[in-house]
Write a structure and sequence with these properties.
This protein is of the alpha+beta class and 487 residues long. Among the domains are: 88-147 and 222-316, D-Amino Acid Oxidase, subunit A, domain 2 (D-Amino Acid Oxidase, Chain A, domain 2, 2-Layer Sandwich); 380-463, Orthogonal Bundle (Arc Repressor Mutant, subunit A). 29% of the residues lie in helices and 23% in strands. It is built from 13 helices and 24 strands. Strands 1, 2, 9, 10, 11, 12, 19 and 20 form an eight-stranded mixed sheet that branches. Strands 13, 15, 16, 17 and 18 form a five-stranded antiparallel sheet that branches. A hairpin with a 4-residue loop joins strand 21 and strand 22. Helix 11 (410-418) crosses helix 13. The model has no long low-confidence stretch (mean pLDDT 94).
């Protein structure tokens, strides 16, 4: 017999987890499905990590409708879920008359979109607040509401809070088909079937594939790949704001951004690709990013790069978000084409989707015991010495530093494994508490993290993957005994 749910959400990225958390305010049986073995393992874990102010989208689009309002909702949700967030502001810089015209256009667009406190700075004003920028800069659009965040940390916190409020999460569960059955949907997966009254499609680059299982094709998703560099956190005072170049038809261009963890991010480029699983980096792309970044800030220390990576953006042929109830499949809702500024828009989008479901349902009943907060995360390295000492006295595992680059303790790793939506892989631990995110990129701490995962999960070392269950780390011992002799 199939399990019966009120709502099944397909996709555990930031859109799926945010909607799940907002729906968990109501008396509903909710299930989140994802084909990966962790929350936020794809687009949400590999993007610019920017909360955009909202001046870029064309007025009248869904992007424009949701970006600026969504931006202003982050302070509250991040406080409730103990997720680091900083409003550092952004600058869109220009070097010539063409850039000046573009910046004036997006300034007017920002006013139309309701972006607060934006203004255009002249050459001297720009260099006064960002002295390391190219001295040839002519002007910049300043947007103080722009911010920085860890998108994957937000998604993990949302999932945890949703589960605390009754939602269920099933990972490594791939949707293979969906059948309409009277007033419900049968979700067919490689791990069993689930019957549900409503479906919310948040499948990222696969949203069109999921859509086509229940309705006639109405849009297509083609991924755009973006490559990035990450600088070591020993780099200080490079820039204080998110720095964009004047946008082109290919997007917002190569940016320079501080991160909430003290690194700097340089990128991305933008290339359409056909393979929805291709997140490989390319040297030509990285060289382009390097040269473009140096145009904005000639002092970028590329000798301090500790990592490069690539992520995919779910670009639809509508060139806009696709949000709402599918016309020929009532009760089937979707958030498609959710590329930038999707992250910035998601609080407002989630509120909108929940309202649509409420209307379709005829009135959802709120829970009396909904808890909007999650248990705070102990970030040992950021605590005062006296607090550290008390923690160590209470739990000696706080004295065992596993990751020397980031000063991450055994106790923090153990905690992230045993939370709701807890870590089950090396990458999952890295996403939650950062061992392996520093200069050595896990060269020293990686084996110890694998050991802790195996111990806490009751598994063999060789059963602990890097990210997906197929991404093995260990295959066997380097020396095996046979007939009493070492081979």
């Amino acid at each position: 017999m199939n399990d019966l749910y009120d709502i099944v959400i397909i996709g555990a990225g930031v859109s799926g987890t945010y909607i799940a958390r907002e729906l968990s305010r109501y008396d509903l049986k909710i299930l989140i499905l994802d084909k990966d073995n962790d929350v936020a393992n794809e687009t949400t874990s590999a993007n610019s990590a920017i909360i955009h102010a909202g001046y870029d989208p064309k007025p009248g689009t869904a992007m424009a409708k949701f970006n600026a309002p969504g931006n202003l909702m982050f302070d509250k949700v991040c406080k409730e879920l103990d997720v680091p967030f900083k409003r550092c502001g952004s600058l869109v810089i220009g070097f010539d008359d063409h850039d000046k015209e573009t910046i004036e256009t997006i300034y007017q667009r920002g006013l139309t979109n309701g972006v607060p406190d934006i203004r255009i700075l002249n050459h001297d004003e720009v260099l006064e607040i960002e002295p390391n920028l190219n001295p040839d800069v002519k002007l910049a659009l300043y947007a103080p509401t722009a911010g920085i965040i860890n998108p994957w940390e937000l998604a993990i916190a949302l999932a945890e809070n949703a589960i605390d409020n009754g939602a269920e999460l099933k990972l490594e569960t791939r949707v293979t088909d969906i059948k309409k059955e009277d007033d419900s949907y049968l979700i067919i997966t490689d791990k069993g079937n689930y019957l549900t009254k409503y479906v919310v499609n948040c499948a990222g680059v696969y949203a069109d594939d999921i859509h086509n299982m229940v309705a006639k094709p109405s849009y297509s998703i083609r991924p755009r790949k973006g490559n990035y560099y990450v600088l070591d956190n020993s780099v200080k005072n490079l820039v204080d704001h998110v720095i964009f170049q004047a946008p082109t038809k290919k997007g917002k261009g190569v940016l320079i951004a501080p991160t909430v963890d003290g690194n700097f991010l340089i990128g991305p480029d933008s290339d359409f690709i056909d393979d929805k699983n291709d997140n490989s980096t390319g040297m030509d792309n990285l060289n382009y990013i390097k040269n473009s970044g140096l145009k904005s800030c000639p002092s970028i220390p590329f000798d301090k790069v500790i990592r490069s990576f690539a992520g995919l953006r779910a670009t639809s042929d509508h060139e806009d978000f696709i949000i709402g109830e599918v016309e020929d499949s009532k009760g089937f809702f979707e958030v498609g084409g959710f590329e930038s500024p999707g992250l910035s828009s998601i609080p407002a989008v989630a509120e909108y989707v929940v309202d649509l479901i409420n209307q379709r349902h005829g009135g959802l009943r709120k829970k009396d015991d909904f808890n909007p907060t999650r248990r705070p995360v102990i970030r040992f390295n950021h605590l005062p010495q006296e607090v550290k000492a008390k923690l160590i006295q209470k739990d000696p595992a706080y004295a065992n530093v596993i990751c020397r680059c980031e000063t991450i303790t055994e106790a923090e790793i153990v905690d992230c494994i045993h939370r709701k939506a807890g870590a089950r892989s090396l990458k999952a631990v890295k996403k939650r508490v950062r061992p392996g995110a520093g200069r050595c990129q896990g060269g020293f701490c990686g084996p110890k993290v694998v050991e802790i995962l195996a111990r806490e999960l009751g598994k063999d070392w060789s059963d602990i993957p890097y990210d997906s269950s197929k991404a093995y780390i260990l295959t066997g011992e380097t020396k095996e005994e046979s007939g009493g002799e070492n081979l």
